[in-house]
Predict the structure of Ripening-related protein 1.
Amino acid sequence: MKQQADSSVFLVLLCVLYIFASVEAQACRPSGTIRGKNPPPGQCNTENDSDCCKVGKLYTTYKCSPPVSSHTKATLTLNSFEAGGDGGGPSECDNRYHSDDDPVVALSTGWFNNRKRCLKYINIYGNGRSVRAKVVDECDSTMGCDSDHDYQPPCPNNIVDASKAVWKALGVPKNNWGGMDIYWSDTD
């Protein structure tokens, strides 16, 4: 009887491991690279510690993002959505600029999902708090190092690029703004 119970426990554990291995196998893989080139003088906005492309450096591109769940892990980064800010041009969803005092975000290409999350809200969880933010733009994971992307590298595939209002709502001290592990989910 004990041997049968041990076999059952082993079988359950084996099934759980298989499920986790299957989820891991669905991970997003790189789709290519872009070779960096130097931006023309004054053409890369380094507000919010944004990086400029480096000549000759290879940058990884993605057409996908990790699978979305009710608790999707991501990296929160800082972005300005205002005219003249480091976000570049107007937002993809509504062709407008947005105040950095509004809780707005750009999502990596896969999560942006061909504009399917445009002007919808997500919940962001970090620093023991949560905030509701509107998706207004794409953080392009497929292209970069050109004028359309403010001569910045392609976005990694796991980014929630957020306005100052999001960082403030999460209660993160200003000297820690820039890159933080968070979780996010779609709102109902």
Notes: The helical segments are 2-25, 109-112, 164-169.
